Amino acid sequence: MLGRGLKRKLSDCEENVAGFSSAFDSSRNLPYPLKRQLVLNMCLTKLQTYKMLVEPNLHRSVLIANTVRQIQEEMRQESGQPISVCTGITPSSPSYTGMESSGISLQLPSGISHQESNCCDLRSAEDPIENSLLIVSDDDMSSAISSILKDLDFVEDISPPTCLVPPGDDQPKFPENTGLKLEDDRQDLKGAECVFGSFEISNSTSYLKDLAIDDIFEDIDTSMYDSDFCCPPLMPPRSPPVATEEPLKTFPSCNSSSASNIQICRTDLSELDHIMEILVGS
Amino acid sequence: LLAGFGNLMQDVLWCFSQVKGTIDIGVTEADIISTVEFNHTGELLATGDKGGRVVIFQREQESKQQPQRRGEYNVYSTFQSHEPEFDYLKSLEIEEKINKIRWLPQHNAAYFLLSTNDKTVKLWKVSERDKRPEGYNLKDEDGRLRDPSMITTLRVPVLRPMDLMVEATPRRVFANAHTYHINSISVNSDYETYMSADDLRINLWNFEITNQSFNIVDIKPANMEELTEVITAAEFHPHHCNAFVYSSSKGTIRLCDMRASALCDRHAKFFEEPEDPSNRSFFSEIISSISDVKFSHSGRYILTRDYLTVKVWDLNMENRPMETYQVHDYLRSKLCSLYENDCIFDKFECVWNGSDSVIMTGSYNNFFRMFDRNTKRDVTLEASRENSKPRAVLKPRKVCVGGKRRKDEISVDSLDFSKKILHTAWHPSENIIAVAATNNLYIFQDKVN
Question: Which N-terminal stretch is annotated as signal sequence (chain B) (predicted)?
């Protein structure tokens, strides 16, 4: 599933992580920011692994995403950034009563330039060891979580049976703002790329391709993180959920964040047509 | 004699009774037991496994000749409940693993149970056949069709005895109602409806109707990026057919009343314990995720299991649990390693005994724990082949947390985290428990004097 060379690096990473996690558990001397960064890295690694699965575990993904958000919030507060800058659109769905008010929405980073400078400040940590672990910025984490949770929704959804559910407030809201979000994601990414000046972020949109890594981060494999913010997830605009679904539009291969996969999509569709022709015998 | 009743000076002594399953070192994944459930009388014990099979054991009649063999459980029926499916449209494989089995109360000679995998619930009828018709007119005894022109007389077929045959037939298939993975099913006390819960939705079904279900809970946000909480378990109240509870990944329980509105997104009661700031860690939320919720038989209490504790909640007290029991608190300092190897996501179940006085749940190293709510005493026992001599009394186990390890104690670092007891069941009225340890099913009973 992973490209050549990446699999080996992943297991190396796992070995390092295993060493770290037992160090985390046993040592009281690890500085808190380092511990936090360790946990954050583990979370992002897991999320990235799930992203590659055809059907990631929703329960685990949500728990891990929440942990990342929590760490993210803590880091923001430490850097003195007011919270209001970082929140996007607050959830408005009335049918979900369990939403905590502290839940941070990660859709539209409204203060992008603020976040950029924030990232730069974080980056200026003196400790070189800490620096080598500060691989991911705020935006990257947000984008990573966003894209993973969005992908989870791409599973073709059987809406509640319309024949018996009463209409009204309880109806799920239609996601009309997906188009707008894509634009903001693009801007977000340009901002991220500026910050990562010394990074060679390849324009490759496929996580399978190798990425060149800057000397400072030689032994840290960042390719897994890069794929998330190379290109916004290209989702076809979603029409409101209807009782009769359009099976063809929810092809899983359209999920991946890459333009080349759209080609794959089209190929798959034509293959499907071909198969249907054979089945129908026309 | 139920634990907690009678002679309180004596603790219940648990003895090995039986073990089902192979002793092979290499365990076939398909044989891993994924659910265990007694029926309402305790006469039957059902297990489901990862391979989609259901095995039902029946308790044999107790005989005067062998009083010490108090009703052993023997295989009664085995059938393939679910098959692996491939969803071609989504390119997804649907696992055949049986997530849950729930029995229906018996009202005639046949037994009925619900079994579910991630996507489809099935109603199975298990019935006995001990007679067969003989003397058909159009078929001979081998089943071959006779030539109608050769038939000169007619006779009435008669029923003759045959060897007992137990057959399982699927009576209903409830499919295509869940986008996300089903984690719970629960039969309503009206015995006409049941519910199935997945990560984001709960559906109500009528047993007679398979092509539609009623959505009663939907926590899916309009935008999936806003999703911060999922449903982890759900159960109907044992007596009030309008009430049910569901638990969440954030450690909360909601009691809902179906009379209030069609869509039960607004809870009638909300149970949540305030976080203990001294125990706060990066993993606080993950370990607070509730993996199982069970009403007491009385219907007055709720039992919940999260990663490190079991809690008893009073339905009339929403702001904190009535009782909290530590299952394996020594793991609190190992959370990062357990997160790294994904053990922190293991979903342990919990059960009440018949009188609601003792609760039981599993742990690692094939340990399981029991907590007596009256005496406040607890015990750790182990399901292992070494302790498997007939009627051998189980010796309590102890985990040593550091410092000097006594003989017979085991240190935290020596625990085998691949041997986890996730599924256990307690007989509805007697001290008989079934404990699933990977591919083996252990049955323990209390000591007969």
Answer: none
What is d(CA A179, CA B366) in angstroms, rounded to the nearest whole number?
A: 52
Angle at B394 between CA B390 and CA B399, to 5 degrees: 145
Instruction: Please give the structure tokens belonging to residue A26.
Output: 């046993």
pLDDT of residue A221: 57
User: Residues 365 to 404 of B: which have CB under 8 A from any A CB?
Assistant: none
Nearest by CB to B213, from A58, A70, A161: name it.
A161
Write out pLDDT tens, residues A234-246.
Answer: 444 444 444 443 4
Beta-carbon separation of B92 and A54 below 8 A: yes
Distance, CA of B419 to CA of B76 (rounded, Å): 28
Q: What is the mean pLDDT of residues B306-321?
A: 97
How far is residue A15's CA from residue B118's CA, in Å, rounded to a whole number? Answer: 33
A157:B181 CB<8 A: no
Residue B383 has pLDDT above 50, yes or no: yes
Determine contact: B142 vs chain A, CB below 8 A: no
B34/B115 Cα distance (integer angstroms)? 11
> For residues A115 and A121, what is the distance between their CA atoms, to the nearest angstrom?
10
Return the pLDDT at A222. 55
Put simply, the answer to whether B91 touches A93 (Cβ < 8 Å) is no
pLDDT exceeds cutoff 70 at B245: yes
Chain B residues with beta carbon closer than 8 angstroms to that of A58: 180-181, 199-200, 230
CA–CA min distance B97, chain A (Å)? 15
Q: Give the nearest partner residue to B199 out of A21, A35, A58, using CB atoms.
A: A58
More confident residue, B213 or A177: B213
> In 3-state terms, what secondary structure has residue B201?
strand
> Would the CB atoms of A175 and B222 count as touching at under 8 Å?
yes
Task: Report the distance separating Cα B157 and Cα B132, nearest Å.
Answer: 10
If DSSP codes are grouped into helix, strand and coil, which group holds residue B385?
helix
Dihedral of CA A214/A219/A223/A229: which sign?
negative
In chain B, the residue whose alpha carbon lies closest to the alpha carbon of A68 is B282
- Length of chain B in terms of residues written: 449
Mean pLDDT, chain A, whole residue set: 54
User: Which pTM was predicted?
Assistant: 0.72
In this predicted structure, the answer to whether residue B145 has a pLDDT above a threshold of 50 is yes
Between CA A1 and CA B140 the distance in angstroms is 59
Residues of B in contact with A91 (CB under 8 A): 221-223, 226
Report helix angle A58-78 to A138-152, nearest 10. Answer: 160
Closest CA to B331 of B232, B417, B437: B417
- Share above pLDDT 70 across residues of chain B, in percent, rounded to a whole number: 96
Q: Is A260 or A198 the better-scoring residue by pLDDT?
A: A260
Question: For A96, which of B221, B232, B333 is closest by C-beta distance?
Answer: B221
Q: Say what the pLDDT of residue B66 is.
A: 66
Most A CBs within 10 Å, among B211, B227, B265, B272, to test the A interface:
B227
- Mean pLDDT throughout B202-231? 95
Closest approach of A142 to chain B, Cα-based (Å): 10
ipTM: 0.90
